[in-house]
Input
Amino acid sequence: MQISFNDMLLDLLTDSAPGMPDLQDRLYDAFASGNTDELKTNLHALYAGIPYNHYTNNPICRYEGFYASVFYACIASLGLRIIPEDVTNRGRIDFTVFINDLIYIFEFKVTDEEPLKQIKEKRYYEKYMDSGKKVIIVGINFNENERNISRMEWEEMD
Output
């Protein structure tokens, strides 16, 4: 039921229902294979699909929570195990995604701050280092004028 609701919400947010199954398939495959280049391409397409009139006279694109909510709806619709606002002993991970033998740790910013640097400084990844899975940390910056990803960096943790 949650997946159906998230599918519907994603369709409403992006106004691109006909292409969404393909995008969802590509995102799922990118997550499952650890192909972060493909993940970046498809996440960029996700945000590009949100109609401009959703922003008209609306400052929502200035807020990290907007981008995180779109991300949440999309990733939840894939049926993956996720933890938004994943609490650690040093702070909160914006978003954690689990698939197969991979764990993704995401940090989002709508500023010039360096989200990857924050993940490293706060050592968010330590929570999952004994999981036996590959941990990939991902920092995403959003540009409020472009209303999309301006920078996405990632790194595998040892």
The domain at 2-157 is CATH 3.40.1350 (Trna Endonuclease; Chain: A, domain 1).
